[in-house]
Design brief:
2 copies of one chain form a homodimer. By secondary structure, chain A is an alpha/beta fold. The first copy, chain A, has 2 domains: 136 residues, Aspartate Aminotransferase, domain 1 (Alpha-Beta Complex), CATH 3.90.1150.10; 236 residues, Aspartate Aminotransferase, domain 2 (3-Layer(aba) Sandwich). Chain A is built from 15 helices and 13 strands. In chain A, the strands form 3 sheets. The first copy, chain A, has a 7-stranded mixed sheet with strand order 2-8-7-6-5-3-4, sandwiched between helices. Chain A has a 4-stranded antiparallel sheet with strand order 9-10-13-12, covered by helices on one side. Chain A has a two-stranded parallel sheet with strand order 1-11. In chain A, β3, α8 and β4 form a beta-alpha-beta unit. In chain A, α4 crosses α12, α7 crosses α8 and α7 packs across α11. The N and C termini of chain A lie far apart (50 Å). In chain A, 55% of the residues are buried. At the A-B interface, α2, α4, α5, α7 and α8 of A face α2, α4, α5, α7 and α8 of B.
Amino acid sequence: MAIDWEARFSSYGKHATASEIRELLKVLDRPGIISFAGGIPDPALFPTALIAEAHRHVFEDGARSGAALQYSVSEGFPPLRQWLRDYMRAKGVNCGIDNILITTGSQQGIYLTGRLILNSGDRVLTARPTYLGVLQAFGGNSPRYGTLDALTDGEACDAKLAYAMPDFANPTGESISLSERKALIAGAHAKDVIILEDAAYCDLRYSGEPRPSLLALDLESVGSIEESRVIYTGTFSKTIVPGLRVGWVVAAKAVIKKLVLLKQASDLHTSTLTQMALTEVVSRLPQSHIAMLCENYGARRDAMLDALKRHMPPGVSWTKPEGGMFIWVNLPAGIDGAQLLAEAIQVGVAFVPGGAFFPDHRQHNTLRLNFSLCDPETIRTGIERLGKLISRS
Amino acid sequence: MAIDWEARFSSYGKHATASEIRELLKVLDRPGIISFAGGIPDPALFPTALIAEAHRHVFEDGARSGAALQYSVSEGFPPLRQWLRDYMRAKGVNCGIDNILITTGSQQGIYLTGRLILNSGDRVLTARPTYLGVLQAFGGNSPRYGTLDALTDGEACDAKLAYAMPDFANPTGESISLSERKALIAGAHAKDVIILEDAAYCDLRYSGEPRPSLLALDLESVGSIEESRVIYTGTFSKTIVPGLRVGWVVAAKAVIKKLVLLKQASDLHTSTLTQMALTEVVSRLPQSHIAMLCENYGARRDAMLDALKRHMPPGVSWTKPEGGMFIWVNLPAGIDGAQLLAEAIQVGVAFVPGGAFFPDHRQHNTLRLNFSLCDPETIRTGIERLGKLISRS
C-alpha cells in the first residue's frame, strides 16, 4: 500500500513547490536555442587555471591537505574570512573576522537569515519583482509580503525584515539610487525593520559610479557594525565561479554567532578544501579579472540594449542596467510572458516569463532577459527574433 | 543604541544555543592532550593522492572543468547518483537515481528531512543517548522527544518520525540486532511512523557479520522503494573524507522530489567540482581502502577495549562496539562526566561528557570515548591516566 506522503509532510513540506523557472531552465537547455533564460555567468570567463592551480597547491602540502579534507569549524576558514574583512573594509565596511560567516553560496546566507529572523506570518518587504531564490529561501517561514516602499511611505509598518538587492537587481537589473538608499536606511531605523542586503552583483558594474552598500551607509549613521541593523550577504558566484558554492554573511557579532549555530545544524560547515583553494584564488586574482568580466558583460549588455531599441515594437519598454546580468522587459498589457515563451521556443529563443518573480500581484506581461551567457552577435539574432514575435502578437 | 537582537530573532533563532561538545572540542584541540573527544577520522588514512588526482583530471578537461565550476542541478551530479544506486543495490536496496539526492554532508540530509516531516511539537523517537547532530538538526522544528522503544512496546504512539543509527551508533558504538531491526520496522508499520535511518558508520565494521539496513529490511516487506517508509542517509565522511561535505539521501521519489526543493531553497546545490571529483574517487578507490581503514580502526578499538579492561576500577562499564569510532562508558552513579573532564584535562586526557547526547533525562555519569584518531600506544597511555583518575574519584 502506497504511503500518503502528503499527509506526513510538514506545512512547509506540503507548500514547497517546484520553481517554474528552474523547471523551465531544464527543458530550455537544448542545442539550437538562443537562451536568455538562465542567470548564469559565462564559463569561458572563469579563472579556471588559477582555480586548478590553487587546488594543486593545497594537495602538494601534506599538512594543508590533511586539514583541507578534515572536518573544520562552522564559522569558515579563518584566512578566507580575513581576506573578506579586507575586501569589506575597502568597501567602507569596518568589521572583524567575527563579523563574517562563510556560507554554502549566498543562497544559504539568505536562507539562514530567514530562519533566524522570521516566525510564521511575519512580514517581509521586497522589491516587486524580486529575486526568486529569496521567495524560495523564506518559503519555510510562511511570511506575508509587502514592498520596500513601506519603509519610506508615511504609513505604519509591521514588517520585521526587508530584503534588498541595491545593485543591478535580479530580475530587473535596476539599482537603488544613493538618495533612495539613504531613505531606506532612515526608514528601517524609524520603523525598526532589519535589512537583509544582497550584494550578489555589486562588483559587475559596466557604467556609472559605484554607490555605497546599505551596510556601509548604515555604518556611517550608527558608527559600528555591532550597532548596525543590516545583514549583508555576498557571493563569489558572479565574479569567480558559482559551482564552488561559496558566499558569506557580514553582520553584528550577535547575529553571526546565531547564524553559525543555524549553519552547524544544517550542514556543519562549507567544504574546507574549497575554502582553502578559494582563499588562494582571491588572493592571487589580478584586478584585471573583474575589469575583463565587466568589459565582456558590458559589451553584451550594450548589444542587447541596442538590439531591443532596434527590434522591439512600440509599447514595449525595458530597463537600462548599469551592471549585473539582466534586463527586464515590460510588454503591452494583454501579452502574457508565459504564452510568449511557448511561441519563442518555436523560433529558437528562450527567456523567463516575469510572473514568477512576484511574491503576489503578479505582472504577467513581463520578461527577464539574461545577457551574460551569449556573445553579442547571438544576442542580436535572438532579440531580432523576439522583436518580430512580439510585433506579431 | 545597540539593537536588541534577541527580541528580533525567531523562536528557532532564540532557542538555538551553542553545542557544549563543539565548544569543548575547540578548547581541547591543543598540543600535549590525548584527545578521545572528537569524532573524526584519522587524516593519515585519507586517500589524499587519489582525491588530488581526481581534481586534477577534472581540470585537465576544458568541458568538464567548465561544468564543474558552473551552477548545476539541486538533485546532484548524475554519475555520482548512478554510482550510489549501484552501491545501494549491493546493499540490498533496489533503487534508481531518482531515489537519490546528493546533500552537503549527511547532516544536511537529516536537517532537510526534519524540515520536510516535522511541524512544531511533533514527536520524534531517538535512541537515548543519540547523535548530537540530530538534536541540532531538528531543533528548529521544536519537536517533543521519545525513545525508539515506543515503536515496539505495547503502548499507543503519537510519534511522526523515528531516528535510528543501526550500526555502531554515535555516541555508544552499539548496533541494533537483526531481530530488533525487524521489530522496529514492524512497529513503524503498525504505528505508522516514518523512519530516518542514519547509516554514517555502516561500512566501518571490525568484527561480527554485516546486518541489513532498515531500508533493505523494509524493502523485503513492502517490495518497492516507492512503498517504503524509510528515509536513508549516507555519507562519504567516514570512509573517504569529511572535509568535502558530501552525503546522500535514499527514499521514495515522492520524498526525494520534495527534499530537492528544500535543498534548492537552502543552498541551491552541492559543489559541482566536488561531486565530479568524488565520482572519480569512489569509482577508482580499491576495495582494500575500506579494509585498510577497518584494520587500523579495529586495532585502535581493540587497544582501547583492552586498556579499559586493564585500567578501569570496578563499577565502570562500557560498550564493546563491532565497528565505528566510539566506546560509551558508564561511570558509577555520582561521578559527573563534566567534572571528571575538568580533572582529566589536568592529567592530559580529554573525552566528551555523555550528558550532551540526551534530548532529555540526561545521564551525567557517562562518557563518550573516540578511538579513531589516536594510535594504539597513545590510546593505552590515555586510558591508563583516565583509569587512575576514576579510581581516585
